[in-house]
């Protein structure tokens, strides 16, 4: 059972620097609220403080009730109360509900805004503490856990340097950024928080003078005042190009800069092994540029009519502009610094020839550069290269590079000349970083991956075949929808012609059911090009439903029989890619069954690849939330089926995860190291043998858990009236009003004609919708708002009970210790349960007027929580994860405040229709609380 006193200790045990930051930011926010309006500010602050004290006292009452034996937080029941009445065992909740009901809607909105802003600031303080922790851990002699250095040391020790070299040669980590609408914060809010973050850094700097600290505090007040006065809600919906530019922020601020740092970390680790050839930065690096980035932003049109062929073209152009500017800046910086004289560091014959060629082609430009860099050949040639990059960006054909390989050849000439002249530190230092950046990003930054639903292709083909075969004159006979499908292929060809094949050649087919769905893509491409050059396409099947996962190997066999696929496989070294959808499978099967069936599918696909001599890359479509396949990425990699990683790992990075992982350079480096080190270890023989043995040992157990868990989950979601009940108890119908993405919440509904309206849909239609039509993101997002987090755990308890009741819990305990997948499944469920609040969640469930469904949910929660604690051996949730437990305990009371405000608005909106003005005010209050709860729980969908 969860022990409130222990959770209180976690909350109290904040590191002093973090406690200081939270107190400072909270105090300044209080001052800002008080001073924001002489008439209303003091009263607003008093209401905020009253609610804050009330929710904290309620949490203290929970602890006291548990200690007195009057309330069991593991179940939420008081003695003598039937389970359905568990919500009555409240912690002062009725008094809090009365307090928030006593305020007018406008005042309640301001209180909600105060708590939402507080969470943004608290998250910032926590992020800074995490960075401090990372620095402290990296200050010793021993490698940090889950680091590249630790992985290299382990593999070298157990398998030797030769095996390490083999693993490095095949290593590839491919991260694909998506625009899935789960980032609830406005870009203006993110920018304000970034400025506040810089000021916190300044206050943390012990070298700064007192005057510097005083100025930082003044600026901090200014920026928090600005944050308070900035609307937390978007006025207009994001369009796809807004999403592209948002992702570019992560690239500009973090990814481009941190990639060479990760490579250098691995280079140092390899150099530290016993048989290393020399010190990192003084000899050629054995580390390949193993990171690659892809993007669905501006290319994923599955269910999003706002992503058009023109948007995809514009996206590729924006990406190329960003990477070329970045490469130009770095090349100029390194070039200006390489002031090596021709006599001290003579240029090689290769560099002399390159300079002579540049003189012949562009004598005036070379003369201008050499006038500023006399007898400095390295500086001259790199500055010339920077001019060529600028010309590539501006499309100056005479001076532009033909492609990244051309630029890379110039860098190699400079590097080899430096090494030959004895300037090894210059050859293999910053210049090597630039080479790694070019190898990673090219001139396109990230490969755009088009995605479309198989049914869209089927409808388009049916229409086109009625007109004639590919090459036939269409002459306006195609509908607008089909013409847009054809325009997509023309856009892919255009991107390839302008930026190279690597810029856009993958085409993902959602809900692939057979090889015919793959063949359809190639046929549509032939229709689009009307006998002209068909773009290079690597079509990727996406398996999402239970039936599709089961038939995946058969589909791949059918694909190999397609001439277009066979040609591509032969041309690229027998490489093939298949994508597994975690979100939709979890929504269909529940978290436990989806996890187990995905593992089984991976194992079967790995076996298929070995039998067919194919190097198969599995593309994991994991969401950020636990209910969509999220969770700690490193541990997830180590839990993959044997043979499914094999040196290569590809995964989506979605929504709020992008900024959580790539908003700060130190955190981004840690994340990339965790994933990369896990891929190395998962590809090693020892880990593979251990995973294979455990999977075989517990195969029968997994099957029984799967059947029982799936039956429980399907029993709930298929219950009569479940969809209507879910729409009533959650803010599902209102989430579209957040305008957090360009994509509608549902595949099947007609999109709004005006992008400014975003994904807002008719509330009545939303309430009666088919759950199969609902995307996984709003499904998870809405459940997280109710504080139940049902997609992260429901059904697992029934699955565990199927084993524990028949065989006892010991077999489950052994599986938890020995099988990585089962350990990850339970740890993720434990995290989801820890963010669940049974009593507040019960208040949401009660809004639906279905005691039978409420009881079913709460009973499964009680069962799951009890058995997770039994199997893990923990006396409370997150007992072995103090940092995460501390974060949850710190936030709980403040999230409670927003939940009570949200419940007030939700209950009013579910009553007979208020007038339009009142509804608009209530919806705004609701959306502010949704935004705040998302920040407090640190997850949306």
Detailed description of the structure:
Strand 4, helix 20 and strand 5 (538-543) form a beta-alpha-beta unit. This protein has 941 residues and is mainly alpha-helical. The protein contains 40 helices and 8 strands. It has an 8-stranded parallel beta barrel with strand order 1-2-3-4-5-6-7-8, surrounded by 7 helices. 63% of the residues lie in helices and 5% in strands. It is globular. The model is unreliable at 66-89, 625-630 and 749-768 (pLDDT under 50).
Q: Which structural category do the helix and sheet elements fall into?
A: mainly alpha
Distance between the termini: 28 Å
* Strand residue content: 5-15%
Q: Care to count the β-strands?
A: 8
Structure, briefly:
The protein contains 40 helices and eight strands. With 941 residues, it is mainly α. Strands 1-2-3-4-5-6-7-8 form an eight-stranded parallel barrel, surrounded by seven helices.
List its salient traits:
single chain; 941 residues; mainly alpha; eight-stranded parallel beta barrel; 40 helices
